[in-house]
Design goal:
With 442 residues, the chain is an alpha/beta fold. The chain contains 21 helices and eight strands. The model is unreliable at 1-7 (pLDDT under 50). It binds adenosine-5'-triphosphate (ATP). Residues 1-95 are annotated as: Domain I, interacts with DnaA modulators.
């Protein structure tokens, strides 16, 4: 309605003046009260407050209005009578149909299509736990991480997982931005209570990109109330953001404290091995075969986000389809020349990893490669093995030789141990990630 040019125009005034001669006083005053009238091409649109008004005009006055309008305009005119209440109802119905989740969920964003690695394992496990016990364990669940690392994908997959277990679950997936604009449109229509009612009924509310609440005071107030209603009713809330709650400056303290009251998990950048797995997954989705050396090359040059990684796979696919060429390292280097130019890729060697780990822990290389069982040495050795396995292309057999071990099992169990500790111990994870980033950047 707001977009239409609506006015009580001169033509309508003249039509009314003509009608005054034909209708009784009551009818005239009711007609004069109509504010919304517009003339578009050959039609005079008369907007009535409700259906009763509309039916009355159509039944009793259509002929008189048509004749008066023809007289004023000087040609035949169609009279269209429209009930504003009906328009609102129609709009409402359309929005309702789109409301509970499914239509806004991306069918590709399922757990089946989500590659799990160390960077998102905790978030994944938390989402599964929440989808299987909504409102009962981690509430709210707050997921944060840099752009393009799979937060939205994780949220949608959680919704699908819950729907698989309970088809009737009412789910809303929205972003803070959409929430704000929908809220304002409801306020404009004088229907804020209806807006709240829709949210009150859900079993799972997924709110993406919560950072867009920053600075939006009215939206924060509304969200605060909805949050409390859902929380008190034991309904599950999952939030995502590009930063942890305490870094969200410009969001009310009472909201931040609620975000902090549940479980907060981070999604970080995937390591090389996980990137290769993601590339393979995307490649099979797009129907392209990517040789391992090309996947490793891609994983090394794209360090920003999974979205960029996916973009690179799409570019390779498009190039090979159009040129009819098979994909190999040469082709990949040509197609992704711009990305390559931004990075100076050097392959990471096991030697450089051992040096970096020794220098960080202030230990001797000789000791790291020995069998000594000192606690600190064992930890550094395991980290060096883990980094060598995830950051280099060396097969397990040559890693065993590097670390002077008789068989691969020592390397495998060291990697398992490091992964396990990273999941449990945040400080330990920070050290491993720091070393990893330093080696990739060097
Ligand atoms: N682990 C993963 N496995 C498979 N695909 C992934 C993974 N992580 C991200 N993606 C893909 O990367 C793309 C970007 O992910 P998504 O939109 O979920 O990121 P985001 O963190 O929500 O980004 P933003 O902060 O910009 O909203 C999507 O196509 C998604 O499928």
């Amino acid at each position: 309605m707001e977009s239409k040019e609506i006015f009580k125009n001169k033509i309508w005034m003249n039509v009314l003046a003509d009608l005054k001669e034909k209708v009784d006083e009551n009818t005239y005053s009711l007609l004069s009260g109509l504010d919304y009238v517009e003339l578009k091409e050959n039609s005079l649109y008369i907007y009535t407050p409700d259906n009763v008004y509309k039916t009355w005009i159509l039944a009793d006055l259509l002929e008189d209005i048509t004749l008066s309008a023809k007289k004023v305009i000087g040609q035949d005119v169609n009279i269209q009578v429209i009930s504003l209440k009906e328009i609102k109802k129609e709009e409402q119905k359309r929005e309702d149909e789109n409301f509970y989740g499914y239509l806004t969920l991306n069918p590709k964003f399922t757990f089946k299509n989500l590659v799990i690695g160390n960077h998102n394992k905790v978030a994944y496990q938390s989402c599964i736990a929440v989808a299987e016990n909504p409102g009962k364990i981690f509430n709210p669940l707050f997921i944060y991480g840099d752009v393009g690392l799979g937060k939205t994908h994780m949220l949608h997959a959680t919704a699908y997982h819950l729907l698989k277990r309970n088809q009737n679950a009412k789910i809303i997936y929205t972003t803070a931005d959409t929430f704000a604009s929908e809220m304002f449109s409801y306020i404009q229509k004088g229907m804020i209570l209806e807006f709240r009612k829709r949210y009150k009924d859900v079993d799972l509310l997924l709110m993406d990109d919560i950072q867009f609440l920053v600075g939006k005071e009215r939206t924060q107030i509304e969200f605060y109330h909805i949050f409390n209603i859902l929380y008190t009713a034991g309904k599950q809330i999952i939030l995502s953001s590009d930063q942890p709650p305490n870094s969200l400056k410009g969001i009310e303290k009472r909201l931040i404290s609620r975000f902090n009251s549940g479980l907060i998990v981070e999604i970080t950048k995937p390591d090389l091995e996980t990137k290769v797995n993601i590339i393979n997954k995307k490649a099979s989705e797009y129907g392209i075969e990517i040789p391992r050396e090309v996947a490793i090359f891609l994983g090394k040059i794209v360090n920003s986000s999974v979205r960029e990684l996916e973009g690179a796979v799409k570019r390779l696919k498009a190039y090979c389809d159009i040129m009819g060429k098979p994909l190999n390292l040469e082709v990949a280097k040509t197609v992704l020349k711009d990305v390559v130019e931004l990075q100076e890729i050097k392959s990471i060697s096991v030697d450089s990893i051992i040096d970096e780990v020794c220098s960080y822990f202030k230990i001797d290389k000789k000791d790291l490669l020995s069998d000594k069982k000192n606690k600190n040495l064992v930890m550094a050795r395991q980290i060096a093995m883990y980094l060598s396995k995830t950051l280099t292309e060396e097969p397990l057999s040559s890693l065993s030789t590097y670390f002077k071990k008789k068989n691969h099992s020592t390397i495998i169990s060291a990697c398992n141990k490091v992964e396990e500790t990273m999941n449990k111990d945040r400080k330990f994870k920070l050290i491993v990630d720091f070393l990893k980033d330093k080696l990739i950047a060097s």
